Amino acid sequence: MSAATFGAADFLGGLASRRSPSTVTVVLLSQTVGLFLLIALLFVFGGDLHSVDIWWAGGAGIAGVIGLVLLYRGFSIGTISVVAPITGLVGALVPLAWGLATGERPSWLAGIGVVIALGAVVLVSGASSLAEFRTRAGMPEAVGAGAGFGIFFVLISNASSAELWLVAFSRAASISLLLGVVVVRGIAVRPAPGVARLVVASGTGDAVANLLFLAAERRGLLSLVAVIASLYPATTVLLARVVLKERMSRLQQVGLGLAALGVALIGFF
Question: SS3 of 214, please?
Fold first, then answer.
């Protein structure tokens, strides 16, 4: 459920970014919508809050919103059905790298998954060389977005407070950062005509997806839950094909299939 909700929310946010002059404005407004929803839920359900978790949630929120800005930027200048899978792959690899750095050792299946995932990135991008990959529209943003999401998964998993509090504080941190960017750069906050509904739906979906991720992570392993959450591009790609009529070459379709296989194998970490 978390992966499907993430995928739908990101597609709607990316669509809003394509119709807006500023990606930062779209993300700021969608994050604000999500925070209002979380505050309303806190009044109803409440939950325990540990002061040390504020820092974990804040760091996670900053990493996550940087990833979100880069993702929406990638969607606005590139092909959604190409940018999304690469973001998902990188987002799955970061928790794996963290596990290795902290002494965990992956299974041989996870090792094969990493190799497949790296090859899938090349195929999905459609680039014939590293230089072409770097210059292709949306590719650097996709990698940066995936890194941001992966760091979000790692940081938020270290906190133990109630899910509602964690996501609310992560939203507060992300909104603070975005407001600073808006003030420094003089960006207009008012949404472009026709995108308000997309922003509201995206912000609501993203907040719900984060709550679902935390609920799942509390009941399972981070390495497995983060990998499953990173399958969200399946929903994004499906919506891009149906709504935007995006098409991929045969080689890119093979890469998309390998991406799903690679992420699944990494789940055996």
Answer: helix
